[in-house]
Hints:
This protein is mostly helical. The protein folds into three domains: 10-274, Serine Threonine Protein Phosphatase 5, Tetratricopeptide repeat, CATH 1.25.40; 282-368, Tetratricopeptide repeat domain (Serine Threonine Protein Phosphatase 5, Tetratricopeptide repeat, Alpha Horseshoe); 378-496, Serine Threonine Protein Phosphatase 5, Tetratricopeptide repeat. It is 71% helix and 0% strand. The chain has 26 helices and no strands. The longest helix is centred in the first third of the chain and has 21 residues, at 111-131. It is globular, with a radius of gyration of 23 Å. The two termini are 28 Å apart. The model is unreliable at 1-11 and 21-29 (pLDDT under 50).
Amino acid sequence: MARLGIIRIKAGILACFFLSLCTGLAAENAQWRFSGDIQRAYNLVLALQTDQAAELLARTRDKSNDLHKLYVQSFCETIDILITEDEKKFETVERNFKSRLRQLDDMPESPDVLFLRADLNLQRGFNYLNLGQEVNAVLSIRQAYNLAGECLKKYPHFLPIKKTYGVLQVMVGSVPDKYHWFMSLLGMKGSVRIGQKQLEELKNSESSLSYEGGLLYYTIKGFINQQFDEASRGLIDILKKEPENRLLNFMAINMLMKNAQSEEASRLIVNLDKNQVGLPVTYIEYLRAEIQLQKGDYAGAIHSYQRFIASYKSLSFKKDATYKISLCYYLLGKQPLANEFFQKARETGRDVAEPDRHAAYQLLETQWPNPKILKIRFYTDGGYYKEAKALIQTVTPADLKLPRDKTEYFYRKARLAHRTGELSAAKIFYQQTIDMTGNNNWYFAPNSALQLGYIAQQQGDQVSARKYFEKVLSYRKHEYKGTVDGKAKSALESLK
């Protein structure tokens, strides 16, 4: 069940989770308002200064806001473990979860108590997912789902639960079709559209929670709806108001990279480098390496990947990082080192996170990828279009000896044309990619169909959009099936 659509990419999980916790300020009876030390501790957690937040909470003697304190304590611990991925801390965090949930179970029912029970179970579910404990994760998320639904039904005007319920609707609504039977057995049904509506309500309200609603709204716009341009602009606008917020910087970096704006993301990484107060965000070294790989700084990428591997406490992303080191050596013409790290990658880490799964798939290959096409891919992914266009013009028929290389060449032409706004050319190249793929299990065809669907939707051709999105789901086997199917499913729902 690890591929329930929840753990497609780390950035997506982290962003959605962080924001699902940000209940923050509120007003009047249906909302929350932290005060005094609780608010200061909450702000410290958002700044990723969890040790300082925990110390402040430990000194707080105000008994009037015990539920707020309980929430911020749990929030603090969960952010810590998700950012650091330090599995050694999980036993302590798990004991605290059990204690807090028992405390809440003994309290009289109220919207606050139901909300906290739902949210803490959601936090617990994400922690289980991070550890690869999929059964426990699903059970916790199901508990959160039931409690959030109960709270919303009984207290429809209690604003915080719209946040939790909205996140759960999006999560369950983006589960790939092959897991629908399991969701039905669990009594869980979700809708990305309904979840977004809940969050948009929050975003557009006059409540203090509208800030958090905006963050969630843009996160889902990007990672679920693939509207990365709008999502990036929204997060950058928020970041302008809080330029020192490390969590916001981290989220914006991820979104900018997904939007092929790696140079802009690189500048935000420099901001994080200058602001080291709080939790070490070691994952940034992985993102730094990705950008260096995209722009052709292969020696720099090797160094950054190695720093990431040495300092990151989890096994996640290490298989992919080691595989990328082998690609860097390959592109530098250092074949013995490329072979060495290729073999090492096979024996490193685990294949739970999507980049690791993709790396594991590539590590089954017996031939190295076409170097020119590989560079074009990286340039395009990072938004280095000038370099990609210059290189693609040098590709000759002699460079494309294998059917897969010939197909991927047109796919890369399609991606580059699409990214640079040449939609007519992109549509031609995407269709050519689909035709050339035939019955092969290459992801180029399903993703080409997905992109053709997005273009048709953008141009107001709903009939063609539906046709292409349904075509995506018709491909039965390829390395990105869970992810691409989830995107197509969300897109189809948006057409209703």
